[in-house]
Write a structure and sequence with these properties.
Length: 242
Amino acid sequence: MNFTIQQVLADLAPDGILRAAINYGNPVLAQRGEDGEARGVSVALAKSLAHELGVKLEMRTFDAAGKVFAALEEPDHWTVAFLAIEPVREAQILFSDPYVLIEGTYLVEKNSPFQGVEQLDRPGARLGVGKGAAYDLYLSRTLQHATLERADTSAAAVDLFIEQQLDAAAGVRQPLEQIAARNPRYRVLSDAFTSIRQAMAVPRSKEAGAGYVWEFVERRLFEGFVRGALLASGQTDVSARR
């Protein structure tokens, strides 16, 4: 550890408060409990980090990852967040190694001719995405022919897919499968266009804080904390990084 705890606290909780951005837009990572309280693996990690540092925790909730990233421009922004590792974000953010791996795939109509993700990258294909989500950023730089239709959130991207009769909605596999399970008109493709690497994030100027968070994630993975938090929040089919 090439930094002192005083440097870490100055970066992550300069006034004794750890401000953590929690993204409800990815229900694998964060959910609202029946009591309205935030829960999920990202919430558990935020609470654990605040406890370890001996500071208070203030959770700032968002409904889309793009909005978490945009909040960095605000004067009193978050000091730690839970985002997918993406090159576009790395200009402003230092990431830990990933703690969870999630598949990005497509929701299509049951009778759609598309059977694999590569088939959707063709001229004339229109795909709904949540603006600024990890899969939006990934598809923006990798698709050659299809057109992306952006909605404010991942949930709204599914609504856009249905309302405008798009060819597919891109998203995280688990919530898309929940939609298909509720409505037999839809199905989820069996393959994936990317593996989304979810990590903890710290503003790039906070190097000591970022170094501490990197070590924190590694320790929590080694202890089985991440896997336990996923199971406790009902995420039984998600891979914690080993």
